[in-house]
Amino acid sequence: DQQVKQNSPSLSVQEGRISILNCDYTNSMFDYFLWYKKYPAEGPTFLISISSIKDKNEDGRFTVFLNKSAKHLSLHIVPSQPGDSAVYFCAASKETSGSRLTFGEGTQLTVNP
Amino acid sequence: DVKVTQSSRYLVKRTGEKVFLECVQDMDHENMFWYRQDPGLGLRLIYFSYDVKMKEKGDIPEGYSVSREKKERFSLILESASTNQTSMYLCASSLPPGPFGSQYFGPGTRLLVL
Asked: What residue of A is the nearest CA neighbor of B108?
């Protein structure tokens, strides 16, 4: 039962354009969402997060949008850079589960120069 | 800077062997986690621990056990390795409470079981 789903295994964009990575979840108890970025041969690193009381959080080139009614979140990267090429994982948590995270399958982003 | 280290980057083992994967963090984090990463399946939680000598099952604990004798060290044990345990294993640690401190990951151990 995949509670967090990233339906696009891969995404390719041109340098300078916008990258939009999508994530859907099924468990309405999730109240905190995170994005992680993973380069080959490295562990995932935290990128940005959003609480369910917000619908947007921005950090430099990265913005996460949350649509609770649709149980959908997205990560926007503007402008995209070749160094952004990595696998991006969406993760969700609920307050009652403490620090435990549920991850999606990941999306491989390739930014072409 | 938080540092999470894993004892090996690559391991090759034979079916039936007992395998130990070690993870050490240097930031006095209470929480530690073991995941496996497989193509198309993302990161799946095997076991986690909120304190020394405490452990809780994650989503896929079958075939694995863990040990946390010291706060900084969390070991994953494959009692009798099988080929379907060939995977990338990732360890993580975090501060409580909740996910707000986020999790810090080690570089991973790529395990091949022949």
From this structure: A43
**Does the beta-carbon distance from A44 to B98 stay under 8 Å?**
no
CA–CA separation, A90 vs A47, rounded Å? Answer: 10
Instruction: List b or e across B16-51, with b for residues whose CB sees 16 or more CB atoms inside 10 angstroms.
Output: eeebebbbbbeeebbbbbbbbbeeeebbbbbbbbee
Residue of A nearest to B4 (CA): A43
Q: What is the mean pLDDT of residues B25-34?
A: 92
| Angle formed at CA A104 by CA A102 and CA A110, multiple of 5 degrees | 145
Interface of A with B in 8-67 (CB under 8 A): 9, 32, 34, 36, 41-46, 49
Q: Report the share of chain B in percent with pLDDT over 70.
A: 93
Instruction: Answer whether residue B98 shows pLDDT above 60.
Output: no
Check if the beta carbon of residue B22 is closer than 8 Å to that of residue B72: no
| Res B2 pLDDT > 80 | no
d(CA B72, CA B4): 9
Between chains, do A98 and B50 touch, taking CB under 8 Å as contact? yes
Inter-chain touch A89–B42, beta carbons under 8 Å? yes
